[in-house]
User: Which sequence fits this backbone?
């Protein structure tokens, strides 16, 4: 399958360094298509030039975050991830419509064109190991795995019993329906195309709830597919604010010494 990585990005001093690190990973993943979405009114020269030399198959989009949403305490990159989803749906729309006509009925997921792809939301500041991409390749609907250095813990992870997700190990808002970071799941392209209205939401979405608000539109906890040896291995980590982690988990200090 093609792995579509949707990455929101915005201009700041570390931007090019972050994108470089990401490209160095993505270049090694076969069949990866990078959807890089700038948070800007126009695509920038810096990112255009960077992508031209990045050696990764890529689509370059842009959409500015409305000014009223650019402040602390509000979710980030909602418009950019939605732009990525909309682009993907447009790419496959012709095929989907053809399949509608051939079947002369609304296409059920299994009647969709035989597209094979996986969609993953890769923020520009995280670290992803190559094993992670092997894990997500076999996603049937929605797959999940642990994420390191997030949620006030050394890692957050889905709790798995008998191959099913039954709860969440996290240090932060354990009451979230899907207590998982954006970096902790992938969705099959079939699901993205067969739920054409599923998008990230601004209204009513608090930080940390975007993942749940999105995932509940397309799946149920019982259906999640645990990856990384039943969610016991950590293949991705968040960029972390060490001060935050220090406050929440002093034992982290031992991890790095
Ligand atoms: C956490 C989650 O990991 C994100 O997936 C979630 O979007 C975010 O919280 C949230 O509050 O909504 P965090 O590390 O706090 O992420 O946020 P950033 O890494 O600063 O931003 C997430 C993504 O949005 C990055 O790819 C960043 O480049 C992009 N972003 C951020 C923009 O496109 N515009 C901005 O103004 C800020
Ligand atoms: Mn981040």
Assistant:
């Amino acid at each position: 399958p093609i792995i579509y990585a949707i990455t929101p990005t915005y201009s700041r001093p570390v931007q090019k360094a972050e994108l470089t690190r990401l490209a160095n990973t993505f270049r090694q993943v076969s069949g990866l298509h990078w959807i890089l979405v700038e948070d800007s009114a126009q695509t920038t020269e810096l990112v255009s030039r960077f992508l031209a030399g990045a050696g990764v198959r890529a689509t370059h989009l842009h959409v500015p975050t409305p000014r009223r949403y650019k402040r602390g305490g509000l979710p980030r990159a909602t418009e950019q991830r939605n732009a990525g989803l909309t682009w993907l749906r447009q790419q496959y729309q012709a095929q989907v419509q053809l399949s509608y006509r051939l079947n002369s009925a609304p296409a059920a997921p299994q009647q969709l064109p035989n597209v094979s792809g996986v969609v993953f939301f890769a923020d520009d500041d995280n670290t992803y190991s190559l094993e992670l991409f092997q894990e997500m390749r076999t996603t049937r609907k929605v797959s999940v795995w642990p994420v390191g250095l997030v949620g006030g813990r050394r890692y957050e992870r889905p709790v798995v019993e008998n191959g099913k997700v039954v709860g969440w190990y996290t240090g932060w808002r354990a009451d979230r329906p899907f207590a998982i970071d954006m970096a902790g799941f992938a969705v099959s392209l079939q699901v993205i195309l067969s739920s054409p209205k599923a998008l990230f939401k601004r209204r009513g979405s608090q930080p940390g709830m975007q993942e749940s608000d999105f995932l509940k539109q397309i799946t149920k906890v019982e259906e999640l597919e645990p990856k990384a040896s039943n969610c016991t291995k950590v293949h991705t980590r968040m960029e972390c604010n060490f001060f935050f982690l220090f406050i929440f988990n002093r034992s982290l200090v031992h991890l790095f010494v």
Remarks:
- The first strand starts at residue 2 and ends at 9.
- Confidence is low (pLDDT under 50) at residues 247-257.
- DSSP finds nine helices and twelve strands in the chain.
- Residues 123, 125, 238-239 surround manganese (II) ion (ligand 2) (CB under 6 Å).
